[in-house]
Amino acid sequence: MGLSNLGIFHTVIGIVAIISAFISLIKSGTINLGKLTGKIYFYCTLVTSLTALGLSSVKGLNPGHILALLILILVSVAYFLHVKKQGNNRSRFIENFSLTFSFFLSLIPTVNETFNRIPVGHPLANGPKDPLIGKTLFLLFILFIIGSILQFRKQKRINKTI
Questions:
Q1: How many Cα atoms within 13 Å fall on the side-chain side of residue 23?
Q2: What are the phi and psi torsion angles at 141 (to 5°)?
Q3: Fewest C-beta in 10 Å: which of 1, 29, 81, 100?
C-alpha cells in the first residue's frame, strides 16, 4: 500500500472519526458534540485534517490540503457554536450542518483512497476520475442532502418545544 508512518496514523485516526460519526448519526440523527461519539469525531477529525496537511504525493498546496483546511474550519465553527452559543437554538442549525458537511467532505478522500488501494493489487478504481468513485460520491452527496433536510426538520421541532 505504500503508506508512510504519518499516513498510517492519519488513516487509523480517520477511520475512528468516520466510525464515530456513523454511530452518532445512527443514534441521534446528528453528530452531537455533547455525546462521546461526537467528541471522538471532533477530536479525531481535527487530528486527521491536520495530519492531511503533511501528506501529499505532489509538492505544494493541493486540493486535499484545501479540503482539510475547510474541514478544520467547519468543525471549529461547530465547536464554537456548541460551546459558546448554548442557549441559542438557531445556532444548532449551523452546528449540525457544519458537522454533517465536514463528515461528507471527509468521505471524498476516504472513498478515493479506499477505492484506489483496496483490494491490494486489484483496486476497485483506477484514479480519482474513475466512474465508480464519481457514482459513489454522488450517492453520498444525495444522502448528505437528505440527511441535512431531516436534521433541519428535527432541529426545527426541537426549537419549537423549547
A1: 14
A2: -65, -45
A3: 1
What's the pTM? 0.90
Q: What is the mean pLDDT of the chain?
A: 91
* CA-angle at 77, arms to 128 and 112, nearest 5°: 10
Give the C-alpha separation, 52 to 75, whole Å: 15
Q: Residue 45 has what pLDDT?
A: 98
CA atoms of 105 and 85, how far apart (whole Å) = 25
H-state helical runs in the chain: 5-28, 36-52, 63-84, 89-117, 131-161
pLDDT at 36: 97
Lookup: cell for 144: 448528505
Please give the grid coordinates belonging to residue 45.
Answer: 477529525
Angle at 139 between CA 48 and CA 30, to 5 degrees: 55
